[in-house]
Each structure stands twice: as C-alpha cells, then as structure tokens.
Amino acid sequence: MVDLRNRSTVTEFILVGFEQSSHSTRALLFAVFLALYSLAMAMNGLIIFITWTHPRLNSPMYFFLGHLSFLDVCFITTTTPQMLIHLVVQNHIVSFVSCMTQMYLVFCVGVAECILLAFMAYDRYVAICHPLSYAQIMSWHVCMGLVSTAWFFGLINGILLDYMTFRGPFCRDNHIENFFCEAPIVITLSCGDPQFSLRVIFAEAIVVLLSPMVLVVISYARILASILSRASSSGWGKAFSTCASHLTVVVFFHTSAMFSYMNPRSMHGPDKDKPFSLLYTVITPMCNPIIYSFRNKEMKGAMVRALGRTSLGPDIVFVASSLLEWKLLPPTLAEG
Fold first, then answer.
1. Is the pLDDT of residue 183 over 50?
2. pLDDT score recorded for residue 23
3. Window from 23-37, 105-119, 174-188, 190-204 with minimum mean pLDDT
4. Disulfide engineering: 69 pairs with which of 47, 57, 60, 334, CB 3.0-4.6 Å?
5. What compartments host this protein (predicted)?
6. Is 295 in contact with 287 (CB distance < 8 Å)?
7. Which secondary-structure segment (H or E) carries 230?
8. Phi, psi dihedrals of residue 264, rounded to the nearest 5°
9. Separation CA 151–CA 145 (nearest Å)
10. Each residue of 212-270: pLDDT tens digit?
11. Bridge partner residues of 88 (DSSP)
12. Is 1 exposed, middle or buried (0-12, 13-18, 19+ CB in 10 A)?
C-alpha cells in the first residue's frame, strides 16, 4: 500500500514533448508539423466535401472514405494543434480535465478508425468477390449500420479506457514524457498500483487492434485468391501492389498503436514512444488521402472539377492535376 498522507494531489500535468530540444530544432519541428497538419486538413477536408456532395461518388466505398477522412481530421486535431502551441511557448501545463478529455478523444477516434478500416476491407472484398450481390449486401442501411457500429465502439471504449487510466489518485511526478496525454504513460504516474489498469488496457488493445486486423487480413487474402484464380499472370503484380497500397495505412496505424499499448513499459522510453505516437497521430492521417484516394481516377476527376469551380481558376487546377499525377503509389482496385 502506498501511504498517501502528506502527499499533494496532482491537478495538472506537464507535457514534456520536445522541451529539451534546442530553439532551432523546435522551430524546424514547428514548421514541419504545421505543414503536415495543414496538408492533412486540406486533403481530408477536400475528400469529405467531394464524397458527401459529388453525385458520381455515391457508393459505399466513397461513403466509408468520407467518414475515414472525417475521423482523420478529428484524430490529428486532438493532438497536433496543442503540440504546435507547446513548440513556441514555454508553458506546457495542461489541466487534469484537459488531459482526460484529450485522452478520451484519442481513444474514441482511434478505436472507431480501427474498426472502420476493417469495414472498408470487407467492402472491397464484397465488391470484388461478390460483384453481382454487392448492391444488396452493401445497402445504404448496412453502410450506416457499419459506420454507427464503429462510432459506438469508439465512444464506449473511450469511456472504459479513460476510466481505467484516471481511476486512481495522482500524487507523483506530473511530467508526461510525450507531446500528448498517452494512457500508458499517465497510468504510471498514479499513486496506486498501475498494473491492473495496464493489464486492462493491454487486453482491450488486443481486442480493438487485433480483431479488426484479422478481418482485414482475411478480406484481402480472399481478394487476392479471387484475383489470382481468374487473372492472367501479367495481372498478378498489379493485384499484389493494389492490396499492398490499401494495407499500408492499416499496418502503419496498427503497428504503431500496438507498440504504444501492447508492449511492456520496460521497452518504452521518450525516444521510442514519440516516433510511434507521431506515426499514428500525425503521419497516418496525412497519408490516408494519398493512399486511399489520389490514385483513384474518379476521385482525381472530382477533385479537379471541384477545384476548377473555385475563384482561383485554371492555375490551381493545373497544380492539382500535376500533384495527382505523381506516381507515388500503385493504382487501387477501384481505379479500374
């Protein structure tokens, strides 16, 4: 038992983040993260606008894609603006309530995105392996139900994991060795025994991260089996590269989250936690539009037409067309 007498209760936390970096390094990081955040907001915002307003993109694939971009906007906004502020100011203090709220939003949106990525893989499986029954299987009510399920589990898991993190009193060191309130780090600052909370979060991470990953793997394995059984050998390379492009974000997101929530604390440290935290909170939301959309002909055409109607005129259309023509990633299955 921990003697809590004569121990003050923590009412605020200090996010260490990049505080120990030099002034020039922080200035460089501010410019880089501001550019990444602006790019992610612009690209995801454009995808949300197009998928929800363009009549030619009225299909389950684009319906899910619009919700994925919305989740990415929410996800990157929960951590990056605060990090940008802390890179330019000396005060890195966050209140107890602010830390709890930020952690809840990260859990809620992160869990919802894990589940939605699995549903997107299932949607591609139905479209490719059962094309004649696709409209009946992936009806509007089914799509709404799947998205609602992702949000429901995100909301419920956020409450559970937030409670497990903050259920005990905090009267130890209040320095969080990261740029946002991450659960495993905050739990170790509790006065009581953190092992029970860590075990619950570990078990929850197994269910939340591995279960959708299994569905993704099964869906794409069946997609590959279906394509290889009826395509010529010349199309094998395209089929494998197509699945690889869709799986890239899933692998990035899941592996970085698994490192943060499924590894023993002895394997953690500021130098190891921050890169993985940046990967799934900043880099992945910025890369999702590129991987899932910008190599899609219908999406490219809709983006160029949407930008062409703006007051910036043909110049921005030319720039957008040039950017979208970069051979960054292999084409998607939907491109055909």
1. yes
2. 87
3. 190-204
4. 47
5. Cell membrane
6. no
7. helix 211-230
8. -60, 150
9. 10
10. 888 888 988 888 888 777 655 555 655 565 566 667 778 877 777 777 777 655 455 55
11. none
12. exposed
Q: Which of 26-35, 161-170, 311-320 has the lowest mean pLDDT?
A: 311-320
The closest alpha carbon to 13, from 80, 108, 75, 100, belongs to 100
Which pLDDT score is estimated for 250? 80
Cα distances from 180 to residues 27, 177, 192, in angstroms, run 19, 9, 22
pLDDT for residue 71 is more than 90? yes
Query: For position 169, what pLDDT does the model report?
Result: 80
DSSP annotation of 14 reads E
Residue 12's H or E segment, with its range, is strand 12-15
Q: What is the DSSP letter of 17?
A: T
Residue 187 neighbours by CB distance under 10 Å: 23
Task: Please check whether residue 295 is in contact with residue 246, taking contact to mean a CB–CB distance below 8 angstroms.
Answer: no
Domains and CATH numbers, the chain: 24-335 (1.20.1070.10)
The tokens for 227 are 């394509």
* Type of residue at 53: T
Q: Which position has the token pair 């953690």?
A: 268
* Summary mean pLDDT of the chain: 78
Q: Which residues of 95-106 are buried (b: 16+ CB within 10 A; e: fewer)?
A: ebeebbebbbbb
Residue owning tokens 């996010």:
15
